[in-house]
Amino acid sequence: MSLWAKAQQLPQDALQEVRSVYGEHFPIEVRHFLSSWIEEKMWTDIEPDNPQYEQYIATLVRSLIQELETKAASLNTDDMFLTKLKLMEAAKNFRQRYTHNPTALFRIIRHCLGTEMKLVAQVENLGGALMSMAGGKVGLISDAVAEIAQHVESLRRRTQETGEDLRKMEQEQEAFAISYHECTKLNAHLQHLATQPQNQQNLDMEKKIRRQKEQQEQLLNHKVAGLMQLRLTLADKLKDTITRLNSLQSRVLDDELIRWKRDQQLAGNGAPFNSNLDSIQEWCESLAELIWLNRQQIKEAERLKQKFALEPPGMQDILPALNSQITQLLSSLVTSTFIIEKQPPQVMKTNTRFTSTVRLLVGGKLNVHMTPPQVKVSIISEAQANALLKSDKMAKNGEASGEILNNTGTMEYHQATRQLSVSFRNMQLKKIKRAEKKGTESVMDEKFSLLFQSQFSVGGGELVFQVWTLSLPVVVIVHGNQEPHAWATVTWDNAFAEPGRVPFAVPDKVPWSQVAEALNVKFRSATGRSLTEDNLRFLAEKAFRGGNASGQDYSSLFLSWAQFCKEPLPERNFTFWEWFYAVMKLTREHLKNPWMDGYILGFVRKRQAEEMLANCASGTFLMRFSDSELGGVTIAWVGDQTEVFMLQPFTSKDFTIRSLADRVSDLQHLLYLYPDISKDQAFSKYYTPFTENQSTSANGYVKPFLVTHVPGWGGPGIGGQTPSHSSVVGVGSNGQSGPGGSYPATPSTIFQAHSPDPSVTRDTPSVASSTNSLSIIMPVIGVVFLICGSYAPGLGQSSVGRTNPDMDYVELMSHGELPSIDENLNLDQFSFSEFIQSYNTKPQ
């Protein structure tokens, strides 16, 4: 059943709340007639503050308007005439209001859908499930929703009671005043009679008046006692209400809002974030309303008390203390609900645009938007953040640790969503001041924070609040090569920050189980699939430098920050984190689909790969991440003699030239993905389509393509040897790399190969697969023309490697002495090596 169908079946009070969120800004008729279309678009999956969605949102809103106009045009019956006019008017208004601001309409629709989700979930799952805003899926949240709603309703009833008590007290005081006035009149009459002659009539009158006076005085005494009891009862009720308000506010702010902030921080590491901020805002608004009403009641009680100044001996007046407590509650609520809805990037590069959004959850209820407050953003150091928390005073001008452009904005109230917020869309960090480093500290260890600060008044200027909030820790970089270490700092902080910490203290050691969870969350978010227990065990061995140790339980061991990202791995010039980050980046950018399909084992050591392949058929292969090369993936395969070979690792640079799937297809000796999956079954859907007839581009050139080829395997064949997705012709050599090393899979340029860094120790001598051995095919007027690299150092017995590296094919042709080629030559049997050798041995 659709969300809209469920919403229409809600109880009357809930249905009325649904109707209340719709209006001229987004008519409920539009929701009704476009219900399926609206729900199919997954509005809740998109972040309106993210610039990358701006174009998508604009297109979505245009499509909505077109869909609305189409629907209106289809309503041709008489009974739908008024509805048709309503839809046409809505489409017109949308064009006028939102064409240049589509995000505003997007926010309105998302808020409406969120309200429906919440109410439907509350009715369907009173036991404690709330529909998540993330993709319309249902995420379980605690029973806090129902409990908090009950507490709010109970406090509303109590506030109504004390309101009635106040009105009753005022009436009683007015009645007392009247009775007191009557008593004074009787007293004055008695005084007057005392001056009159003492005749029987006057004596009877005096007796009667004295009797009335006694009755009136008894009534006054009774009223005084009643008033005093009312005062005491009211004060006790107000005191109890404040205690309950304090308890509820503590639960909302210290539990729910803090949990939301913690979830937001974990989302920085990639954890799912089912934001319930709209629900928290409703609770905070209810608290603000109740606190404000009770504060007004306390002030009214003080006014009534001053009007009837009666202080019995020994009775303590608690109203001033209650007023102070309730005002402090309001202050705490306002300052705590000034929050960062969208955090700035935690790895921030100078001179790069970034965004952030700040929101005041109680702004609408307290009418703060009547005088829209300004918000200023600055960047402060960890030491400055500590000083700020200790003094609880906002930073003065000139105390920032850097310069941010476009760092001021005005909060705006969005009527449809009842949100008071400001989005900073074009901030840019121009300068940064760094602290002096000690010991092994680096600039990527240093944490900063963005300070958002504002000032506003409530109650017509009666109360003025200075508010501020700090962003999650930010690491500032100036170059992309600083990014991995910066993300190490951020990941460790996000994962292991403790509640109520001093900014931005984190433990130096944490249990491996927590590290494993953080790495798993990070990897799953980046690549789409979680790490397995075997993957995590592999990572534990690497992090703890355990070598090939097996069976050891790492869960209770503590991993230090130094082991995580400071100390290089044994015989390597990079750290554990750098290795993990490079693998994650490679998988995210180039291997995501095969990884999600489970076709890349990845986290397997060389010896383990050899053991796994030892009993497999020839041509069986698997893919593992290289231990020796950052961000490298190598192919291990079984040769004809059941010997296991390791192909030199491919890196991101290789995959930007040719994808993993295409490279696997090129290498025809690779037949079965471990354990026995046909490689075409696993990878064919990722092959790049290829057609024989390549059209000539506008500039007259024909674009060539590259094919992966391993020396010693023979070239990719023609006809029956051709991979199903491409037609390739290759010429190779029968050599292999020497035992001392191998050559990179991607040269610095296609024309100039480079040798490996001798300082880098590889995990195994590898078979080279590079552009040195890549064939290029170009159809030129029906003739297949081959271009092969003439420089192939280190390829064993390759005769190509023995030719003059400075002599290319054109130069050979210029000699005019090349051997003639038989017109009937079978290219399948053609050997370029023999061809060159015959040229070299020809008598000069």
TrEMBL record:
<keyword id="KW-0238">DNA-binding</keyword>
<dbReference type="InterPro" id="IPR013799">
    <property type="entry name" value="STAT_TF_prot_interaction"/>
</dbReference>
<dbReference type="InterPro" id="IPR048988">
    <property type="entry name" value="STAT_linker"/>
</dbReference>
<dbReference type="InterPro" id="IPR012345">
    <property type="entry name" value="STAT_TF_DNA-bd_N"/>
</dbReference>
<dbReference type="GO" id="GO:0003677">
    <property type="term" value="F:DNA binding"/>
</dbReference>
<dbReference type="InterPro" id="IPR001217">
    <property type="entry name" value="STAT"/>
</dbReference>
<dbReference type="GO" id="GO:0005634">
    <property type="term" value="C:nucleus"/>
</dbReference>
<dbReference type="InterPro" id="IPR013801">
    <property type="entry name" value="STAT_TF_DNA-bd"/>
</dbReference>
<dbReference type="GO" id="GO:0005829">
    <property type="term" value="C:cytosol"/>
</dbReference>
<keyword id="KW-0963">Cytoplasm</keyword>
<dbReference type="GO" id="GO:0003700">
    <property type="term" value="F:DNA-binding transcription factor activity"/>
</dbReference>
<keyword id="KW-0010">Activator</keyword>
<dbReference type="InterPro" id="IPR046994">
    <property type="entry name" value="STAT5_CC"/>
</dbReference>
<dbReference type="InterPro" id="IPR008967">
    <property type="entry name" value="p53-like_TF_DNA-bd_sf"/>
</dbReference>
<dbReference type="GO" id="GO:0006357">
    <property type="term" value="P:regulation of transcription by RNA polymerase II"/>
</dbReference>
<keyword id="KW-0804">Transcription</keyword>
<comment type="similarity">
    <text>Belongs to the transcription factor STAT family.</text>
</comment>
<dbReference type="InterPro" id="IPR036535">
    <property type="entry name" value="STAT_N_sf"/>
</dbReference>
<dbReference type="InterPro" id="IPR013800">
    <property type="entry name" value="STAT_TF_alpha"/>
</dbReference>
<dbReference type="Pfam" id="PF02864">
    <property type="entry name" value="STAT_bind"/>
</dbReference>
<dbReference type="InterPro" id="IPR035858">
    <property type="entry name" value="STAT5a/5b_DBD"/>
</dbReference>
<dbReference type="InterPro" id="IPR000980">
    <property type="entry name" value="SH2"/>
</dbReference>
<keyword id="KW-0597">Phosphoprotein</keyword>
<dbReference type="GO" id="GO:0007166">
    <property type="term" value="P:cell surface receptor signaling pathway"/>
</dbReference>
<keyword id="KW-0539">Nucleus</keyword>
<keyword id="KW-0805">Transcription regulation</keyword>
<protein>
    <recommendedName>
        <fullName>Signal transducer and activator of transcription</fullName>
    </recommendedName>
</protein>
<dbReference type="Pfam" id="PF02865">
    <property type="entry name" value="STAT_int"/>
</dbReference>
<dbReference type="InterPro" id="IPR036860">
    <property type="entry name" value="SH2_dom_sf"/>
</dbReference>
<dbReference type="Pfam" id="PF01017">
    <property type="entry name" value="STAT_alpha"/>
</dbReference>
<dbReference type="Pfam" id="PF21354">
    <property type="entry name" value="STAT_linker"/>
</dbReference>
<dbReference type="Pfam" id="PF00017">
    <property type="entry name" value="SH2"/>
</dbReference>
<feature type="domain" description="SH2">
    <location>
        <begin position="595"/>
        <end position="690"/>
    </location>
</feature>
<dbReference type="InterPro" id="IPR015988">
    <property type="entry name" value="STAT_TF_CC"/>
</dbReference>
<keyword id="KW-0727">SH2 domain</keyword>
